[in-house]
Design goal:
This protein is mostly helical and 162 residues long. Helices cover 57% and strands 9% of the residues. The protein binds zinc ion. Zinc ion (ZN) binds next to strand 4 and helix 3.
Length: 162
């Protein structure tokens, strides 16, 4: 047997171990993904009018529930404001995904909605660093699951919670 054969064996064992780790559905990226989905539903339900339609924070157009996203004023890369209710508002898919300058109108309308002092606080918060503990993410998942259920019943908007 040559040396190459012996060198290969431990690699097979390593791969098997990695496979086990991958199945851990409670890993931090999965918790963040799950909370992203729930938080998005919550924001869109919060901003929905009693008739089930939603006004885009940026362009002001009225859209159906399925045609709006949860638009972040400070992008999702800012972990400190990723799940902040002031930072997130219902925004139409066009503004959120394709418009390069949607944040100009977003800013004006956000200040109108939450006031200048909360807007300034939000800016400071977005610049701070933040490391979420798994337990904090899990607590928010529980909190927003409940909120989504309540709002979806109250506003008679059917949502799919995965
Ligand atoms: Zn829009």
């Amino acid at each position: 047997m040559n040396k190459y054969y012996f060198n290969r064996k431990p690699k097979v064992a390593q791969t098997a171990e990695k496979g086990v780790k991958k199945r851990n559905y409670k890993s931090k990226p999965n918790l963040v993904k799950k909370l992203d989905r729930l938080f998005s539903l919550y924001i869109r339900l919060r901003d929905a009018m009693p008739n089930g339609y939603v006004r885009c924070i940026s362009c002001g157009k009225i859209k159906t529930f399925d045609d709006v996203d949860c638009g972040h004023f400070y992008s999702r890369t800012h972990m400190s404001t990723r799940f902040d209710e002031d930072n997130c508002n219902a925004e139409c898919k066009f503004c959120n995904r394709f418009s390069a300058d949607h944040l100009i109108a977003y800013q004006t309308n956000l200040i109108r909605k939450i006031g200048i002092s909360r807007f300034e606080k939000l800016g400071l918060k977005a610049k701070s660093t933040c490391h979420w503990l798994d337990s904090e993410l899990e607590d928010r998942i529980k909190y927003y699951s409940q909120k989504v259920n309540e709002l979806s019943r109250e506003k008679a908007i059917r949502v799919k919670v995965k």
